[in-house]
Amino acid sequence: MPSKPAPIKKAAKKEPAKKEEEKAPEPAPEPAPEVAPEPAPAEAAPAEAAPAEGAPAPAEGEAAPAEDAAAAPPAEEPKAPTPPPPDGRRSGDWKAVNEDLQKSCRYIIKNQTTGDRLKIRVVAVNAGGRSPPVTLPEAVLVKEVADRPKVRLPRFLRQRYVAHVGDKINLTIPFTGKPKPVVSWTKNGQPLDTKRVNIRSTDRDSILFIRTSERDDSGVYEMCVKVDDFEDKASLTLQIVELPGPPASVKIADTWGFNVALEWTVPKDNGNTDITGYTVQKADKKTGDWFTVMEHYHRLNATISDLIMGNTYKFRVFSENKCGMSEDAAITKEEAKILKTGIDYKPPDYQEHNFTEAPKFTTSLSDRATTVGYSTKLLCSVRGQPKPKVQWMKNQMIIGDDPKFRQICVQGICSLEIRKPGNFDGGVYSCRAKNDHGEATVSCKLEVKQPVVADADKK
């Protein structure tokens, strides 16, 4: 009996040992998951990488808090960093800038001091631990956060800007950028002539100013704004125009019937803009007056029609552009005479009409009344061929050249003016017209009244 219990006790002793061995590996996987979250703070210094990778043993798992305690001081060192060397690099004090692991391959490091130079490295982490770091070859200079420069060219300057000679040019071009961009201007790729063009720039815009524009100010102006290595450019085209010159020449190419063919050449000076048309005028040699026969005409030749036979003409041509018509014109040296060619005029046979006529009054005299001292006038009209002779009579007596009366007869209108008539100037007045074919007479009665006297005057 005593010999049997021994193996039983040995078996009892071995079973707990097996259980302990089976239980022993169970704690080992527990620290393994703890290693994965620790690499984030472990990036602060390369020295933390080794303990983080050798942590699978349970015995070392118990020592891990001691290592974490030892690693705590380097994590606090960035709060009071030692002054960096002159080049801004911190020697050996690597610090994790992201508290949590980043899945993205892009990260922004914020809240840095302007002027510092930082060396940057990146470590990849997975469940198996940390990769060797990859470091940028050169230190990065921390600069002020800047807005890229941008020229805000106004819409009306995106097309050709046209002005007349003598105009004042004042163009404002806004821009953005931080810090204040450096502004520069060129004209046709060359520096500006500061005697002709003034540039005034502020933090927000630049002004191009020309006091009195000339044609030489035309060209392509380019504005450039620059911040560090970034820049933006915009260009505007300035065109200064004026009235064109006259056509270089004009001539009479042909004359036939009542028509003249003209030809001319473009002007030598177009006023720095396109020619929009031509104005053609003619003048009769007899009068010398110029009349427009064509305007806004686009061709370099024209046919002038409906000219008068027997007349001699000269022609001139003006140039036109958007500023208006040229001050001078090109005039033909030759003259065009409209001849009576190919026409044999034979007047028709007819009997001449007899226009003779005896005098006849078309308007008779009318009776009138006037007041003593107030002049009056008698009127009538007569016709006849040949022109009749007119006589005025008072009470059948010819008035003649009496200065009291004024007699006028113009184009058949006859008038007799009685100047300040008196009490004895009333009566019957007659007008008689007479020629070789007869005579005619009209009469009227004139009454001369006394002026009305007020009662106060009577007293």
From TrEMBL:
One of its GO terms (cellular component) is myosin filament. GO terms for biological process: cell adhesion. InterPro entries: FN3_dom (IPR003961), FN3_sf (IPR036116), Ig-like_dom (IPR007110), Ig-like_dom_sf (IPR036179), Ig-like_fold (IPR013783), Ig_I-set (IPR013098), Ig_sub (IPR003599), Ig_sub2 (IPR003598). It comes from the Eukaryota. Keywords: Cell adhesion, Immunoglobulin domain, Muscle protein, Repeat, Thick filament. Residues 149-237, 359-443 form the Ig-like domain. CDD domains: FN3, Ig_Titin_like. PANTHER family: MYOSIN-BINDING PROTEIN HB, TITIN. This is Myosin-binding protein H. It comes from Seriola lalandi dorsalis.
